[in-house]
Amino acid sequence: MLRTPRGGAGDGTAATEAGPMSIGAVLNVLRDEFPEVTVSKIRFLESEGLVEPERTPSGYRKFSPRDVERLARILRLQRDHYLPLKVIREHLEALERGEAVPLPTVGRQRDGEPVPDPGDTVGPTVARIGRAELLAAAGIDERELAEWESYGLVAPLEDGVYDAETATVAALVVELGRFGIEPRHLRVMKAAADREAGLVDQVVAPLRLHRNPQTRAHAQARTKELASLTVRLHSALVQTALGVRLP
C-alpha cells in the first residue's frame, strides 16, 4: 500500500501528495511496498520510456501521483508476475488505449504448462524467461550475453532458460555500463551476492528441511524477508563507505 512520506493513509492503490513530487519523495512512497527500489531503478524505468515525469526549467524531475501509481504497477508486474519491461510496456499501452487485455503470462507459462496456483504451498514457483526474451528485454546481443555468463553475472538453468529475475540483473548491468562499469568489474558484486545468499540459505535451511509442511512453506517467506534485509543493509553499507546518502 502506498502512502505519503508524511504518513497519510493509503487506499490500497495510492495516497500520494496532491502536488508534483521529487524523485526522493517518490522513493520514500514506493519503499514501503518495494524496499529494494532505488533512485537508479526509477531513472532506468524513465530511460526505458515506462514513465515520463515533467521537468522543471532547471532539469529536476517532478512526478505526478499518476506517475507514482504507474511506477508501482510496473514494479508489481516485475515482482509478482516476472514480466520483462518490453511486455510490461505493451501491456500498459494497451490499457491506456482502453483495451480489455488479460494479464500477460511471459515467464510463468511455458510449453503449454498451466500457471501454478499462487496459493499452492507445496513448493516455490520458479518463473522463467527464455533466452530470446532475455536478449530482447535487456537490448543486448548473443556476444554480450555470453560475456556476462563467462563472468557468472547470469546463468541459464538446466533446460537452457533463465530465472525471471535475470531480466532485472541484465537491466542493471546495462545501466551500470552507461557509467563505464564493465561486466568484468561486476564480478566482485556477484561474489558478495553469493556469500550473502549463502548466509541466508544457512539460516533458512532448517525450516526448508523440516518435516512439517507448514514449516517448509514458511521457509520461502522467511527467505524473502531475509533477502530484503540483506539488500537494505548492503545498500546502507555502500552508502556509508562512499560517504553519500541517496535521497
Question: How would you characterize this protein structure?
Answer:
This protein has 247 residues and is mainly α. It folds into three domains: 23-81, Orthogonal Bundle (Multidrug-efflux Transporter Regulator, Chain: A, Domain 2), CATH 1.10.1660; 105-181, Orthogonal Bundle (Multidrug-efflux Transporter Regulator, Chain: A, Domain 2), CATH 1.10.1660; 188-247. The protein has nine helices and four strands, in the order ααββααβααβααα. The protein has helices at 23-31, 39-47, 65-81, 85-96, 131-138, 142-150, 166-177, 187-208, 213-242, and strands at 54-55, 61-62, 128-129, 162-163. The strands form two sheets. The chain has a two-stranded antiparallel sheet. A hairpin with a 5-residue loop joins strand 1 (54-55) and strand 2 (61-62). Helix 8 packs antiparallel against helix 9 (213-242). The two termini are 21 Å apart. 21% of the residues are buried. Residues 4-17 and 106-126 have low confidence and may be disordered.
Outline the biggest β-sheet. 2 strands, antiparallel
- Terminal CA distance reads 21 Å
User: What low-confidence regions span 5 or more consecutive residues with pLDDT below 50?
Assistant: 4-17, 106-126
Instruction: Spell out the helices and strands N to C.
Output: HHEEHHEHHEHHH
SS summary, helix count:
9
What is the CATH architecture term of the largest domain?
Orthogonal Bundle
Number of strands: 4
Percent strand: under 5%
Principal-axes geometry comes out as globular
**Can you identify the CATH class of the largest domain?**
Mainly Alpha
How many structural units, i.e. domains? 3
What helical percentage do the residues reach?
40-55%
Instruction: From the alpha carbons, calculate the radius of gyration and give it in angstroms.
Output: 19 Å
Main sheet: strand order:
1-2
**CATH topology title of the largest domain:** Multidrug-efflux Transporter Regulator, Chain: A, Domain 2
Which class best fits the helix and strand makeup? mainly alpha
